[in-house]
Write a structure and sequence with these properties.
Blueprint lengths: L11 E2 L3 E2 L7 H5 L32 H5 L14 H9 L14 E3 L3 E3 L12 H16 L3 H7 L4 H5 L12 H8 L2 H7 L52 H6 L1
Antiparallel strand pairs: 1-2, 3-4
Helix pairs in contact: 4-5
């Protein structure tokens, strides 16, 4: 017998989305048939309350009703995705974190996807999924770069492509530069007026990885400070040189 644990909270999210969440544990969801692992109706009697004004009527009561129009992007390109950013953030209301498998289908080490959608986004193990849940919570509400990207409608695929990132995953410079401009453009934006040679985007080391300084899921740091202890440099979602702060 499946025991339902129901949690209820409400939140107005972004463009007027109202989130009323009743959470199911992953064990309960895995006990359901695959065809019913999209239990929107357990939380929403209909989608009227969560749709923006002027949105076309939605007659279905499961996530597949949304996917009929909001087709998952499978190009792997670093594109903005407002629908998927908003729907994922809406389901992270307050401290009631909805488990991924409430909406997604998952077979450990075999597949991870969406109901009635072909293909898989990866083959995460139980360990991978535990890490992904931590990262997803950070993306939705942290003070790091991942949450800054979330507010701009950048989802996981915007940085990592079609497949779910694993613990060893990184992001190549090309993914970052496709949105933020070339290194030359970045260097022009960050050229210091007083010490033009101290430009983090025009390093004497040549082209280094963006992720050396810019960390998505933890505090970013200025790589230059490893050698140049007295430099004072700011970085988004990071701090200035702690040593400089202490010397004031």
């Amino acid at each position: 017998m499946v025991v339902h644990k129901i949690f209820k909270n409400t939140l107005v999210v972004l463009v007027g989305l109202v989130c009323v969440i009743y959470g199911l544990t992953s064990e309960e969801v895995k006990a359901r048939p695959v065809s019913t692992r999209s239990p929107c109706i357990n939380c929403h009697t209909d989608f009227t309350s969560v749709l923006r004004n002027g949105h076309p009527p939605v007659t279905g009561k499961e996530i597949t009703a949304c996917l009929a129009c909001h087709v998952p992007k499978t190009t792997g390109k670093p594109e903005l995705n407002a629908f998927f950013a908003r729907i994922h953030r809406a389901h992270q209301c307050f401290k009631q974190k909805v488990d991924c498998v409430v909406c997604h289908t998952w077979q450990p080490t075999k597949s991870f996807g969406l109901p009635n959608q072909n293909g898989t986004m990866g083959k995460p193990s139980k360990k991978d999924m535990d890490l992904l849940k931590q990262i997803f919570n950070s993306w939705s509400s942290s003070v790091f770069l991942d949450a800054l990207h979330a507010k701009k409608n950048v989802t996981c695929t915007g940085c990592h492509g079609n497949f779910l990132p694993i613990s060893e995953a990184t992001v190549e410079n090309g993914r970052c530069l496709s949105c933020h401009g070339s290194l030359e453009q970045l260097a022009a934006k960050t050229s210091p007026l007083e010490f033009p040679d101290r430009n983090p985007h025009k390093s004497h080391l040549g082209e280094i990885g963006c992720t050396v300084c810019h960390h998505a899921h933890r505090e970013s740091e200025v790589y230059c400070l490893g050698c140049h202890k007295t430099f004072q440099m700011k970085i988004p979602a990071g701090t200035i040189n702690p040593q400089h702060q202490q010397s004031k």
